[in-house]
Amino acid sequence: MTDGSPIGDVVARMRQRADELPPELARRRFFLETYLRTTQAVGRAIDQGLFEDPAWVEVWDVKFAELYLRAHDADLVTRAAEGSDVPRPWRLAFDASPELPALAHVLLGINAHVNYDLPQALLAVIGDDDFLDPQLMDKRRRDHERIDTVLAERVAAEDGELAATGPRSLIDRVLTPLNRLASRRFLRESRQKVWHNTVELQQARVQGSYEKRLGELEVLSAAKVADLLRPGQVLLRLAVTGFGVTLPPP
Fold first, then answer.
1. Of 136 and 78, the one with more pLDDT
2. Which InterPro entries match (predicted)?
3. pLDDT tens string 90-144
4. How many C-beta atoms surround the C-beta of residue 240 within 10 A?
5. CB 3.0-4.6 Å disulfide test: which of 36, 103, 239, 245 passes with 220?
6. Is there a contact between 197 and 245 (Cβ–Cβ < 8 Å)?
């Protein structure tokens, strides 16, 4: 990954957003910097040949990041004016209390981004004709699942980054190994649900009901973010209830 590559460019845009965060929104840096490092890791994985179609993964990853940047920028505008173009999952994540620990802010951002944005990003780079080609779709699905390899390798490193943000309670320190296992589990679980939701949204796109179904996904994703805002050990609860959301039949 070079600075002039599409992923290098989107990383630079993330870094600019982090540098320009106003002091009262400093809590937003926890997710933003985690996401920046993860995007860099995806870029390295592309360079190392992890994916079957690296050019497609690169375009997809940039589309995915742009949905987050759009929500981030829209929220900054909204704070200075009336009205809101910020999707509900992101609105809840952005408005979370600054008193929450860094891990909570990271999980809120990941949840909003994966559950709500990721199916949209996949549909942006998979055309309707592509869905009629089983071999191509199998390849797309396998590359979609390979992202978990990158994310799983980041869990321990990101845990170390979060540990450096401040002291942790005794129970958080004791539960760290279990939390890492739970992280890997809910990554796999949520990715399977994302693929299901992508297929549901594509069918809606063909049938002319895409906006309605996307609205349903927005409601489900916002409800999951709201659930994460409840008190308690979030990762342990996610290990039981799951991280993702599932669109029901239309």
1. 136
2. DUF5995
3. 999 999 999 888 888 888 998 999 999 999 999 999 999 999 999 999 999 999 9
4. 7
5. 245
6. yes
CA-closest candidate to residue 71, choices 24, 35, 19, 46: 35
Q: What is the end-to-end Cα distance of the chain in Å, rounded?
A: 41
- What is the maximal distance between C-alpha atoms in the chain? 53
- Cα angle value 200/203/206 (rounded, 5°): 150
User: Minimal CA–CA distance to 95: which of 64, 71, 65?
Assistant: 71
Distances (CA, A) of 228 to 73, 109, 222, 225: 23, 11, 10, 5
Q: 70: buried, middle or exposed (CB in 10 Å: 19+, 13-18, 0-12)? A: middle
Q: Are 96 and 105 in contact (CB under 8 A)?
A: yes
CA distance linking residue 167 with residue 152, whole number of Å: 24
- Give helix then strand counts, H and E, for the chain: 10, 0
Q: How many whole angstroms separate alpha carbon 187 and alpha carbon 53?
A: 21
214: CB partners within 8 A, 6+ apart: 120, 201, 204
Tokens at 84, concatenated: 């809101």
- Is the distance from CB of 112 to CB of 92 less than 8 angstroms? yes
Q: In terms of Cα–Cα distance, which of 143, 209, 154, 172 is closest to 36?
A: 154
Picking from 151, 133, 137, 138, the residue whose alpha carbon sits closest to that of residue 61 is 151
